[in-house]
Structure formats: C-alpha cells, structure tokens
Amino acid sequence: MDFSELSFQDAPLIKVPPPGPGSRELLDFQRTHEGSAVSYSRGLPMALKRGRGATVEDVDGNLYIDFFGGAAVMNVGHGNPEVVEAASRQLGELTHALDIPTPARRRLVEKLMMVLPADLNRVFFGGPTGSDAVEAAVKLAKSNSGRVPLIAFEGSYHGMSSGALALTSGLGFKEDFLPLIPEVHFVPYAYCYRCAFQREPGSCDLECAKYLDHVLEDPHSGVGKPAAIIIEAIQGEGGSVVPPDEYLPEIRDICKRHEVLLILDEIQTGFCRTGKMFSFEHAGVVPDILTMSKALGGIGLPISGMAYREALDTWPPGKHIGTFRGNVLAYAAGSAALDFMVKHHLADHALELGETMLSWLEDIRKESRIVGDVRGKGLMLGAELVKDKATKEPAPELARNVRAECHRHGLLVEIGGHYDNVVRFLPPLVLTRDLALKGIEIFENALRGCVL
Ligand SMILES: Cc1ncc(COP(=O)(O)O)c(C=O)c1O
Q1: Which member of 100, 137, 245, 405 has the greatest number of CB atoms within 10 A?
Q2: Structural domains in the chain, sorted by start
C-alpha cells in the first residue's frame, strides 16, 4: 500500500504562525478553566482539529508532519479508514460491557494470540491506561511470588499511578508525592552514551547487567529478593535508549537464574513501533509478563492489558478490577489495527524507514556541534542535544527551542531523556519516505536556527 494517500498531501503548510487566533482562543480557554498540570499544550501550543495518517491540522488550518504520534499511540495513523470503519460499526452495536464477553473482545484476544509468543497464552484487560496495566502486572507478580520488592531501571517510565510512578525513575515526576509503594530499587540501564560505569560501547563487559546480577546475589546488597524486574526493551521516555543486542538476553538469564519474574513493558514499544510486533522480539527473549496499551486501541481508543504465562494465572476473580476494564470500541479498533499492521507489513516498513531516518540523523550528528548522539530502532528515534560534544553537558533549553522551531515550521516532535534534552521522533508508522525527509529537513534547519 502507498501510505501517502492516508496523510494530508500538502503538509507541512503553515498559513499563520502557530498558535494562530483559533488556537490562541482555545488555549486561553484551557488555561482559564483547566488544571495547571496540563502540559503538552505548553510545549506544542496549538489546538487540533483533524488528523490524517502521519499529519495533523490545527484549528487555524496549519498542517503539520506528526513525529509525535500522540506519544506513540497512532501507529496505524490518524483517522485510519479501516480502523475508523470498524470502530464506527461497533459504536452502533455496544460500547460498554466491563469484562463480560462480546464478539469484539473475543476477536481482539484471538488476534493478540496470533501475534504474541506462544508462551504468553493468557490475556487480561484492566483499566484504560498503560499505568493500570503496570499496576496489574505488579500485582500478578506479587501474588505469584509472595514477595514485595521490585527492581526497575534508571531512565524508566512506567506511568503515573502510585505503583507505576514508584517504578518510574524521573524524580521530577514523583518527588512531591513520596513515599509511594515501598521497596522499589533502581539499577542502571544499558544507556551507553552516558554509561553509569564509564565504559565505552563495544568494549564493555555489560557491567550494567552484571551489576544487577550482583544485587540479586549479594546478601548485603540491601535489596530483598524481588517479586519482579520490570524493564522496557528499548527505553522510551528515558530518551529512545537502545541497549546492546546482548543486554536483554542477559537480563532474561539473570531473572531465570535468580527465579525472579520478568515484566517487559511494551506499552510504548509495542505494535510494530520498533520494527517488530513487540520490541523484545529483536532480542529473541520472552518475558513472563508483558504489558501493552497505547497503539492497542488503534486510533487512540483507551485500552490496556497484559499477556502472561498460564502458570501465573493463579489469582482469584476480582483481584484486579475497574469499571473500564476493557473497552468494546477499542477492541473493535484494536482488531482492525492489528489486521492493518499485519496486512500492510507495518513492522517492516517501520524498520526500513527507521533505518533510513537514523542514517540521515547520523549525518546531521557528524556535522553538528550540539547533537551528541542519535539512536533508536524502527520509528522510535531520538537525538540527544548537548552544549558540548566533549563534555556531553545536556542542553534541555536547546531541545525546547528546537521543538518550538520545528513547530513553527510544521513539524511536531516530543522531548524526553534523563535531562529533557532528547528530541524524540515517534511518528505514526504510516509515515512516508517523503514526509520523513521533509520532517528531518525541518529538524535540521531548526537545529541551525537554534545554535548561536
Ligand atoms: C513504557 C511505558 N509504560 C507505561 C506508560 C504509562 O502509560 P499511560 O500514560 O497510558 O498510563 C507509558 C506512557 O508513556 C510508557 O511509555
């Protein structure tokens, strides 16, 4: 399929400098009536009207190339016609059923079973957000192991509810709310650009994984035997951090050796984002519990869930409940989205286009004084901005300026990373080469415009 017909052909097109008058009015309304914790509309000040494919339109008629993708939700593209049709059909039938079976629910479970590893043969839908899937996964691990401690990784992001927030490393998110759930410990991730052990990629002996082994082995590490270790196969909010190939298999082995459950959080990386249906497939490992959300609802319909090994299915009815445990519209949309992904080889497209974009970014890095590192897999890419390539001093203000400059020229990007200095690209996977090239050119010009 030629994905170009899914997007606005004229994007990018800036008719009025954003935020234009229509956007300003809605932003003012929001500022006056909504809570001050609203954040995305501060970084990307505009009001949105429509989305098509890998492009969106604001209320002033400006068209943007969307490298933000609703925070890695819109994998099949805004307004994907096949998914919209399936969701619209369901809308007139039934929209809410808690966890009572429906044909739409069965279809989604069947389709998930077709793309999940055979060992993960139990599916469970909880509340509508990724955070809820993380809470459920932790509960499942705790109830199976009878243990309390948990290990997560520096640079992790697992959500905002108390348990998920406890597992999230960013202090800015949680320091006002401590203490959260007890006995959560953090160990370094394989973030090679800023290696916690000051080693160079390629010449290290995976000290970061070895350190985890040590923590689990040493009775004086101060860390009790955990209920689970939770990890992102590629870190998202931590700055699109891709560990070396051997890292995840090593973590899997360590978990097996120490009889600790492994939870892989695929909420951001899942559903073709990194060039495989799930990102752990790159490493050839299978977790004990897998969390999923974001792109599972196809066109942003809220749903989350987990898949796990049958042997863990020991908890009694009602152990994890909620009014919105699953969403019938999202089941229908999710099934159609999975069909679309498989039929149109979306993972392969993401992998190939991602490689091309990474090579363009690498060219930019070589020329630039402020792009310290570029990395990613599939269409989950990042450029880490620094004040000085030698000292690697982070440049968060520069990243914010680059995002603003991109926005003014018709490109939406996200910011993440330990120091909020990584410009992140998470476009809908139906992005075309042409839009990708235009987007990267805008990014490159924005870098030039922001450097003194
Ligand atoms: C890896 C990961 N886990 C969990 C979450 C939390 O999901 P939600 O924001 O839907 O609660 C996110 C959100 O960005 C995420 O990236």
Answers
A1: 137
A2: 1-66 (no CATH), 82-343 (3.40.640.10), 345-424+432-452 (3.90.1150.10)
Write the residue with the smallest CA distance to atom 2 of ligand 1. Answer: 158
Tens-digit pLDDT profile for residues 368-422: 999 999 999 999 999 999 999 999 999 999 999 999 999 999 999 999 999 999 9
Token pair recorded at residue 270: 């899942």
| Contact criterion met (CB below 8 Å) for 241 and 279 | no
160 alpha carbon – ligand 1 mean position (Å): 8
- Say what the pTM is: 0.98
Tell which atom from ligand 1 comes closest to the C-alpha of 156. Answer: 1
Residue 139 CB neighbour total at 10 angstroms:
16
Report how far residue 368's alpha carbon sits from residue 366's, in angstroms, rounded to the nearest whole number: 6
* CA–CA distance, 281 with 109 (Å, rounded to integer): 20
CA distance 396 to 419: 6
d(CA 305, CA 334): 12
